[in-house]
Amino acid sequence: MKLASPAPLSVWRPLALDDFLVGAPHYPEHVDDGYWQRDAERMAAAGFNVVRMGEFAWHILEPREGVFDFSLFDRAIAILGQHGVNTIFCTPTATPPRWLTATYPEVLRVDEHGRTASHGSRQHADTASPVYRLHSRRITTALAEHYRDNPHVVGWQTDNELNTTVSTSYSEATLREFRRYLRGRYATIADLNYAWGGDFWALAYDSFDQVVLPLTGAPGHPSPGHVQDFHRFLAAATAAFQHDQVEILRAANPDWFVFHNLGRLVDIDFRGEFGHDLDFLGFDIYPMLYDEMQRTGGHAATQALHLDVCRGFSGNFIVPEQASGFGSQPAFSTMTPEPGEMRRMAMSSVARGADGLMFFRWRPAHFGAEIYWMGIIDHDDVPRRRYEEAARFASDIARIKRELLGTSVRMDVGIAGADFDNQEAYKTYPIGLPSPLEDATRLHRYCYEHGIACGFIHPEDDLSRLKLLYIPHWLMWKPEWDERVEAFVRAGGTLVVGAMTGTRDADNHIIRTQAPGPGLAGLCGVRVEEFGRVAEPGSDGLFPIQAAELGQNKPAERPPAGSTKRRYRFTLGNREHETAHLYELLETEPDVEAIGHWSNRFASGRAAVTSREVGAGRAVYVGTYLTDTLVEGLADQLFPTAGVAPLVPDLPPHVEVALREAEDRKLLFLLNTDAEPVTVPDVPAGTELLTGRPVEGALPLEAYGCAVVRLS
């Protein structure tokens, strides 16, 4: 099933597979083998070609140290293979067996409070532990050698959702490995002391052996450089842990594809070794769960955001776990997809870059911490509407996959993303400001609701396919990106730079020149003279300081009403906007136009938003953070001249649109995210691939209906 070696990491990269993977995670160990034949028959009837298994089964595969038993999975794989259903096997290292943690307790994670992790859950072993890495290599080697010639095992998933349950550990093993990492990063302890600002609060060390792990509130705040390097270390340790497994699997059978399924995007540098080691990435998609956790404005838009963020790491992907029904663990539960919605959510994943998708899960467990996490088959082993929808989706894919494979997702508006250092730099010193992703979400949501092709892109990718690029307050702007971004602007692109961009170096030190750093300042013709916090729109005052941060044992007293209501406003176009989070006062070059002005308080009349023509394009600087109204204002000002327009004009509410394209074809996805039927007017001419009917003009969509139009 693997077709070719993958291209370099890029948001534009399609998968190098010759077939679309469709199926489900499957746990034959959860039922007796009397179910297995019926399972395989139903999967084949539904149009599945693959299952994923084995990620939590180390205790079965190696019941005692050095004693292996693969018979259960051998039989399950054989039965599935007889019905044309191949297997993706997983390295089972997310759940070490009890004999391992009992014999080698040093592999267990330790939390910030010194508590050692307990057996009885998952991800309780420390992936930075050399002892655990040794056992990970042992089980991976045994599995790879056993299945190297099995024709029904076509690929591998490494571990399962690395760092999703927890990413940190404060064990002795972690400390030793952290010190080892620092010795490799810094030539001398003096270099480390400089990077971490050792002369502040007497934080300097005399040797690497003195370095401690950064603890919050112990009792003050650790250096931002210390915290940044700790998370760089965690990412490096995660990549090294996975690299062990990838090397073993590739040596055993170079025809296998290898990927990882990501859950929470924590302490993993996808653009580093972690991503380069893999053929592609997998992203587990639970739209209703993510929306309830993050409150980002509706599960359809939240799903689109997650998919677009993830695609920015490495291009097209697969979805190893796509929500199929009600989901829960003991502490939470999600809403339930309505009839038709499971298929629509799956098609949204495809529209935004999935070249493979597996519905979680084949059947729900009858025991354990996910007994109410529903699957395609119900607890009573009866297939109902979720099975029917999965089969319909597989039929849809059969109709479009020849056109689909080899395409990438169109983006007219790109948001700078996929950079580990900038993700982490914000966290080391947030001061109540939104993260780059929180800020970018406002622009992404506007584009999603207006049918504008938008996504996330790393500055090292090909920017020429964009019309507008937004940098959402990246603190660590690297000089090596300057030339690429300037070339994008000179060729006709529109660059929009957010406040606070380029204010720190790689050590988390404040730069010694005026922001936004030499490259962006020269491009935009802007330097920041002053910045300050402002009251949030609709709030009573500034960002609250927690009593614990003040060293108090009681809540901080609220200031008198109005005492901190320092609201700032500015004009952009014909509208006045209230500023959120922060203001900047800007010094501008003579050829810079102020298209927005501060309109009250001491800043009145000063430039708030600037524009400078550079070659055939322009560089815009925004001296504040985004609000919904500011996004609307910027869209009105910038999108028409940048050539940014909706993929479909007059898009009705609750209709999602995306475009996948290659040099010789364009596939327009139109998805109804609502329970009410809708008609989309003015659809470009083409052929609707799911029905084979010609389309031009009005296109009706049923409740949660899906259409894929190959444009003429």
Automatic annotation (TrEMBL):
Keyword annotations from UniProtKB, A to Z: Glycosidase, Hydrolase, Metal-binding, Zinc
Pfam families linked to this entry: Glyco_hydro_42, Glyco_hydro_42C, Glyco_hydro_42M
Keyword Nucleus: no
E.C. number(s) listed in UniProt: 3.2.1.23
Molecular function GO terms recorded: beta-galactosidase activity; metal ion binding
Record has Transferase as a keyword: no
Residues annotated as domain Glycoside hydrolase family 42 N-terminal: 27-399
Sequence positions that bind substrate: 122, 160
Active site: 161, 321
GO BP: galactose metabolic process
Residue stretches making up the Beta-galactosidase trimerisation domain: 437-643
Gene3D superfamilies: 3.40.50.880, Glycosidases, Golgi alpha-mannosidase II
Similarity section: Belongs to the glycosyl hydrolase 42 family.
PANTHER family the record matches: BETA-GALACTOSIDASE GANA (PTHR36447), BETA-GALACTOSIDASE YESZ (PTHR36447:SF2)
Protein name: Beta-galactosidase
Phylogenetic placement of the source organism: Bacteria, Pseudomonadati, Pseudomonadota, Alphaproteobacteria, Hyphomicrobiales
